[in-house]
Amino acid sequence: MTPEELYDKLRPFQESKGYFFNRDKAFVLDLLENLLINKERYGYMVCPCRLASGQRELDRDIICPCSYREADVAEFGSCYCGLYVSQDWNEDKIPHTVVPERRDPEKLMAGLLFEE
Predict the structure, then answer these.
(1) What is the largest distance, in Å, between two alpha-carbon atoms of the chain?
(2) How far is the C-alpha of 79 from the C-alpha of 75, rounded, in Å?
């Protein structure tokens, strides 16, 4: 699957839930490419903006869309990596601020401990 094919597959499904891809399509396609790389590497599409442990159970919260997307988009208009955004974010109706990491520090460390 190519990043463009993944984009076309995910877009209508996510938009029906109120989540939109970032309007910067080149940025989105780069993230999708890295999700596909992670799928080959780990067997699942883990967020390319976070360190994965390679252990599915430890990484479950960062499999895209991650467990934090809903809260991030509700509060900031964007998820942590900027792949998914609200319509207001895409239309510049809300400020584009840095989304803080919500992930438990112990899980963050797991990515460092298991990285090859």
Answers:
(1) 42
(2) 9
